[in-house]
Amino acid sequence: MKVKVNVYLKTGILDPQGKAVHHALDVLGFAGLKDVRIGKQIVLDLDVASEEAAKAEATEMAKKLLVNQVTEEFDIEIVR
Amino acid sequence: MNVAIIQSPGTNCERDTEFAFNKLGCKSTIVWHSETSLPAKTDLVVVAGGFSYGDYLRSGAIAQFSPVMQAVRAYAEKGGMVLGICNGFQILLEMGLLPGAMRRNQGLHFISKYHHLKVVSTNNTFLGKMNVDDIVNIPIAHAEGNYYIDAAGLKSLYDNDQVLLQYCDAEGHISNPNGSIDAIAGICNKNKNVFGLMPHPERAVDTKVLATDGAKMLKGFL
Questions:
Q1: Residue A14's domain is classified under what CATH number?
Q2: Are B140 and B168 a contacting pair, CB within 8 Å?
């Protein structure tokens, strides 16, 4: 079963990459852009029986290694 | 004094660190990441700088789980002296041995240059032989040195004398190269046996590289 772990910088944590891309999009003439935040997506292929088990396993992996909870937050998506 | 220098795949400052401590009269041993224990009679562990495990995922995120780092954690928890320089600092943050986290530099660039630092606290072994407000000029070389800690954590750092070094200019005025909270360049833990800094004192110990301020700092451990 495939699971996506989406990792974002917490609100209020400066995102320099997002800022740089925001600036570039402004320069390209895209109007009305309020904010750009850049995160990352980690796709896991898990050998588990249920969606609940997949979610639990991915959450544990996120907390242990994939996410630094001082600066980042995450959500988990089951790929159907 | 016996110094154990931790080397992971991608570490690149272990030789400079060995050179620096040997020059100060220590006996240094480089310890590979797959070792499960530290050399007997280790007086100081230095987690050297570089790009452990290619900085994959986040700087220091993977190195924290290497076999030797479990020995370093046990050593630190028993009160042993541990110094993390640059990537070593990032690893100690990821391990939770030091509070806070690193973000990418505010200006997005990798910064490699000499930078002045101001001593904020000398109430610790590392900087105990220096004076508050002493200014040193040593190299910095990092892309992720933008230190972050939340407001409560920052207050706790100051309350317990854990802020060791701030980036400044030659006159000692705060000058922040990377966006770190309060221009913090180095901290220690509450027990004052685990130290981390982004600048590289081990690269400034010889007049041939035009700078010896790093030696002044590392002497604290002798």
A1: 3.30.1280.10
A2: no
* CA–centroid distance for A22 within its chain: 18
> Could you give the ipTM of this predicted complex?
0.86
Domain containing residue B115: CATH number: 3.40.50.880
- What is the extent of the structural domain holding A64? 2-79
Is B188 known to be catalytic? no
Enclosing domain of residue B36: 2-221
Catalytic: B200? yes
Mean pLDDT, to the nearest integer, of B72-99?
98
Number of other CB atoms surrounding residue B128 within 10 Å = 13
Identify the pLDDT of residue A80.
80
B202 is catalytic: yes
pTM metric for this prediction: 0.94
Q: Which residues of A16-44 are buried (b: 16+ CB within 10 A; e: fewer)?
A: beebeebeeeeeeeeeeeeebeeeeebeb
What digits encode the pLDDT tens for the residues B15-31?
Answer: 999 999 999 999 999 99
Strand order in the sheet with A72-78: A40-45, A2-9, A72-78
Are A16 and B103 inside 8 Å of each other by CB? yes
Cβ separation A13–B65 shorter than 8 A: no
Total number of domains in chain A: 1
